[in-house]
Amino acid sequence: MEVKLAECAGFCFGVKRAIDTVYEQIETGKTIYTYGPIVHNEEVVRELEEKGVRVIEGHEELAECAAEVRKAADETARPTVIIRAHGVPRETQELMEQNGLECIDATCPFVKRIHRIVEKAGEQGMQVVIAGNPGHPEVEGIRGWCSGPVTVIETEEEAERFTPEEGRQVCLVSQTTFNYNKFQSIVEIFRKKGYNDNIVSTICNATEERQRSAQALAAEADVMIVIGGRHSSNSRKLYEICSRECAHTYFIQTLDDLHLELPKAVRLVGITAGASTPNNLIEEVQNYVRINF
User: Fold this and answer.
1) What angle do CA 216, 234, 33 make, to 5 degrees?
2) Are 88 and 112 spatial neighbours (Cβ–Cβ below 8 Å)?
3) d(CA 221, CA 235)
């Protein structure tokens, strides 16, 4: 039986950059906060918490952090807040600055690019449409940089029903981890309806490459294992893609979640992993399958 890892799997550039930023700040000895989990992987967040990194959520906790800054005896005792890889709304970032917090922006550069695109589109009077999950922090952050009307679309059916406000041109972007094929379908719907004023493909290359390589591997595998955080959008999309190609697809967060029931005459077990999955976890799963099956 062969165990094969997808060509593209594990940490992407933006995630690695964000995590490296946190570890660099840990070395300063200051109290470190991240605004929201730095990435969508509970194992990574747990390891950082063990090193003293604290996660804050929402403006109320941010105000409490600001109060701690004001009480600090000197500059070295003041905590540092790191913005998560998914980014935050403009209002949140401005609130950090207004409260005198030392703020380090670890937003993925590909997400920051979307912030600039929608900000400019709003200034030009366009209606922004985001293809993505409306409850995802990246999408919430993007919405927060829109100064005019904004709509989030997750399905082709929603795209068919969408009508912009009268007299407004449309700017279409997408969550960086959105399903590539689904975005292309939405683009096609918009073009047929004549909403092709400003369509920008903002799915990052790492997402597209992971989805394509996972799909290719799942198409030839007897069993697929997808490793990723429970709340990871890109990991769940990998699972959806692999499930369509391979009936025996498992979605796990850690090795403890893996309860393999292999069908007879398995030739190939494929493994892929989301963009916030550490390499050591991928290797652990690979070795376990090789040794035990």
Assistant:
1) 150
2) no
3) 18
Structure tokens at 113: 């690019």
Average pLDDT score, the chain: 94
**Phi, psi angles (nearest 5°) of residue 211:** -65, -40
Question: Do 55 and 37 touch, CB atoms closer than 8 A?
Answer: yes
- Catalytic residues, by residue number, are 138
DSSP 147: S
User: How many residues are present in the chain?
Assistant: 293
The Cα 281–Cα 10 span in angstroms is 9
Beta bridge partners of 170: 127
Q: Which two tokens stand for residue 22?
A: 């946190």
Task: Tell the residue number behind the tokens 């829109």, with chain if given.
Answer: 146
Residues 87, 90, 91, 96, Cα dihedral to 10°: 60
Strand pairing partners for 55? 34
How far is the first Cα of the chain from the last one, in angstroms, to the nearest whole number?
8
What tens digit of pLDDT does each residue of 124-149 get?
A: 999 999 999 999 999 999 999 999 99
Sheet holding 32-35, edge to edge: 54-56, 32-35, 80-83, 102-105
177: tokens are 């981890």
Tokens in use for 233?
A: 């959008």
The answer to whether 5 and 288 are in contact (CB under 8 A) is no
Cβ atoms within 10 Å, residue 67: 10
pTM of the model: 0.91
Give pLDDT, residue 219: 98
Q: What single-letter amino acid sits at 91?
A: E
Q: Measure Cα distances from 280 to 111, 158, 204, 260, 283 in Å.
A: 26, 40, 24, 20, 5
Integer angstrom CA distances of residue 159 from 105, 188, 196, 199: 33, 10, 13, 14
